[in-house]
Design brief:
Blueprint: H1 2-15, H2 23-27, E1 38-47, E2 50-60, H3 66-69, E3 85-86, H4 90-97, H5 99-105, H6 112-127, H7 129-139, E4 144-151, E5 154-155, H8 160-170, E6 176-177, E7 180-181, E8 183-188, E9 195-200, H9 226-229, H10 234-250, E10 252-255, E11 258-266, H11 272-284, H12 306-310, E12 316-324, E13 335-343, H13 345-359, H14 362-365, E14 368-373, E15 376-382, H15 387-391, E16 395-396, E17 401-402, H16 405-417, E18 421-422, H17 423-439, H18 445-461, E19 464-465, H19 484-495, H20 503-526, H21 542-558, H22 565-578, H23 586-598, H24 606-610
Parallel strand pairs: 1-4, 18-19
Antiparallel strand pairs: 1-2, 3-4, 4-5, 6-7, 8-9, 10-11, 11-12, 12-13, 14-15, 16-17
Helix pairs in contact: 1-10, 4-5, 4-7, 13-18, 17-18, 17-23, 18-23, 20-21, 20-22, 20-23
Length: 617
């Protein structure tokens, strides 16, 4: 991953016209804000062995002169890297915090002439401080909010000493931390594998490498030796920082309460033009006007570019880093939650192909779900698969809290990496969501179909791990095929044969269908559904399922509306063939039952239609 981030950083620097051979150009910053129009210069001229103060001049700010200004931000409570600073309070900025303190606290940089040069400037500024402060106040405004120096009509960036100081002080962050200095000379850099004049020990691009705890430094807890663990040269450190910034801006996405960055890594020797073209297309994906058609998404982030990545050839692989950063991408807190390595574009294409297949199944296409914008309903659309379907079973929308972040991310990882997912484990979470709605008398159709869609998606991917499946069960006889209802049942089970691979599952599903038929009749006749109380809040087991069938039949006979004797017969046949001691957990039984309830309208009888059978309620 480190090599990939460096490669991205090199591309970004080249795009900006900057070179790792000129670190000053990379490190120099921009002091301006949205109000800045001019820069104030304290003008000094040399006179013999000293400098004299010549007043304050103003010059229009220019982005092309950033190298001349030589600005690099330091601490808010101490001097910047050079004597160019933004003005907060004139007197404080010049005298107490930024300009004069810079010349007071500078250190020798190896050249006596440089030291004398800086000493003479500092002496001149101190001797004329009151006049300088008054002149700055006279010229200061919101538009003139930057101070710098002009020395003998030259900018500070024209002097090698200031340029060298900016670089030396900027790279300090790579080797000075915890009150320790960790660097060495003439050592191999672990990133570029080249011998460099200096390598540093505290380069931590995403804070996944730290040396702030015992045991994190090889050979003991001597932080000065951190460079031995992870030696990085200046050029590589700068490329990594640039790569991190590029990734944060261009390939950083939302993911259902998390953030993730997408780090592409070229897996073989790819020519320079191909890399450049790839990154240019990545940037275009951020702008919808460049897209030929509406993209398909596996997440809710409108900027997502997984479909674009799925269209690439396998000359690269993709690394997903899910993270938590409460203070922002560049904040001090950056916790890596999940790192998924080496996902090929062909794997992403498989995820989209299966999504297309599942989305086209009619029972999902006909399930309309509301569409909202700014918490206001704007319409509805067919149910489609994305990772939000999975999220629904691990996040409690009603109470706005996670049921399990860990398990959600674990399943995401397994989907991307083609690893098996335990059917029973997943079913437990699906049924928790369905039961929660059922107990509160809320409709369960959408949540049930979402669960069924998720199971279909995972099964089609080949990663749903179900023990004891039998794929050769052909349970409906030739005689039954003559009957329209039995033909519908047979066709449905054949379409989803991976899920209806036993008589027990078929009988439970069909009993759910029959139960919903009874509830519809009750609601039509009595405006209530008292039989729901017998469903145990959808905590059903084998004994309860078998006990329910005669109770449903009796109720239908009481209402004189038992249009479902053929359906009852099919259920009984499957009960007989299923035998006893089903190898089904209670969550699985409950799910198949409620799935049948929510798809009951697919199995209408002629008598039901003629007698005005109701839709599910």
């Amino acid at each position: 991953m480190i090599e990939a981030i460096k490669e991205i950083g090199k591309y970004s620097l080249e795009k900006k016209g900057k070179s790792l051979d000129r670190p000053f150009d990379i490190l120099v910053g921009d002091p301006a804000n949205r109000y800045t129009k001019n820069i104030l210069f304290i003008v000094l001229e040399s006179e013999g062995k000293k400098f004299s103060y010549k007043g304050v001049s103003s010059e229009e700010y220019s982005k092309e002169k950033l190298g001349k200004y030589a600005y690099k931000k330091g601490s808010s409570r101490s001097a910047d890297m050079t004597p160019t600073s933004m003005i907060t309070n004139v007197e404080s900025t010049f005298k107490k915090v930024k300009i004069l303190p810079w010349f007071t606290n500078y250190t020798t940089f190896g050249e006596d002439d440089d030291e004398n040069f800086l000493v003479k400037i500092g002496n001149c500024l101190r001797e004329n401080s009151e006049d300088i402060i008054n002149d700055l106040k006279d010229n200061n405004s919101a538009e003139n909010n930057i101070i710098s120096l002009k020395i003998d009509n030259k900018y500070i960036g024209d002097y090698e000493v200031f340029r060298r100081i900016l670089v030396d002080r900027s790279k300090n962050v790579f080797y000075s931390k915890y009150g320790k200095v960790s660097k060495s000379e003439n050592q191999l850099c672990s990133v570029c594998n080249q011998k460099k004049a200096e390598v540093y020990g505290f380069v931590g691009t995403y804070k996944f490498y730290t040396v702030d705890k015992i045991g994190f430094v090889s050979g003991g807890f001597n932080q000065k030796d951190a460079w031995k663990n992870y030696p990085v040269c200046l050029n590589c450190a700068l490329a990594l920082e640039e790569g991190k910034n590029y990734i944060g801006k261009n390939i950083n996405f939302n993911f259902y309460g998390f953030q993730y960055i997408l780090i592409p890594k070229f897996t073989m020797k790819v020519d320079y033009e191909t890399k450049i073209s790839f990154f240019k297309n990545v940037e275009k994906q951020q702008n919808p006007k460049f897209r030929q058609e509406e993209i398909k998404r596996l997440t809710s982030d409108e900027k997502e570019m997984l479909e674009f990545m799925s269209e690439q050839k396998n000359y690269l692989n993709l690394n997903f880093m899910f993270y938590d950063a409460p203070k922002g991408y560049d904040g001090t807190v950056f916790k890596i939650l999940l790192y998924i390595e080496d996902v090929l574009p062909s794997r992403l294409k498989k995820l989209f192909d299966v999504k297309k297949y599942v989305d086209a199944i009619d029972i999902f296409k006909e399930c309309m779900i509301p569409v909202s914008e700014n918490k206001k309903r704007t319409g509805e659309k067919p149910l489609e698969f994305n990772f939000g379907i999975l999220w629904d079973f691990f996040y409690d929308r009603r109470n706005k809290r996670w049921i399990s972040k860990k398990y959600f991310l674990d399943i995401v990882n397994k989907i991307f990496k083609n690893k098996p997912i335990d059917f029973s484990f997943l079913m437990n979470f699906i049924m928790q969501e369905i039961r929660g709605g059922f107990i509160k008398d809320n409709p369960t159709k959408v949540s049930t179909l979402k669960g069924f869609m998720l199971l279909n998606y995972l099964k089609r991917l080949g990663i749903l791990n179900k023990e004891g499946s039998s794929m050769n069960d052909k349970d409906v006889s030739d005689q039954a095929e003559k009957n329209e209802l039995k033909q519908n049942i047979k066709s449905f089970f054949e379409r989803f044969e991976d899920f209806f691979d036993s008589d027990a599952k078929k009988s439970v599903f069909l009993e759910g269908v029959l139960t919903q038929k009874l509830l519809n009749i009750q609601y039509s006749d009595r405006k209530g559904m008292p039989f729901r109380n017998k469903l145990k809040g959808l905590n059903l087991d084998e004994k309860q399922i078998k006990r329910l069938l005669p109770q449903i039949q009796n109720k239908l006979e009481e209402y004189n509306k038992n249009y479902y004797k053929l359906l009852e017969s099919v259920i009984s046949e499957h009960f007989v063939m299923a035998g006893n001691n089903w190898k089904m957990q209670n969550d699985e039984i409950s799910f198949y039952f409620v799935l049948g309830m929510n798809l009951s309208n697919l199995f209408k009888t002629g008598k039901e239609v003629n007698n005005g059978g109701e839709e599910n309620v």
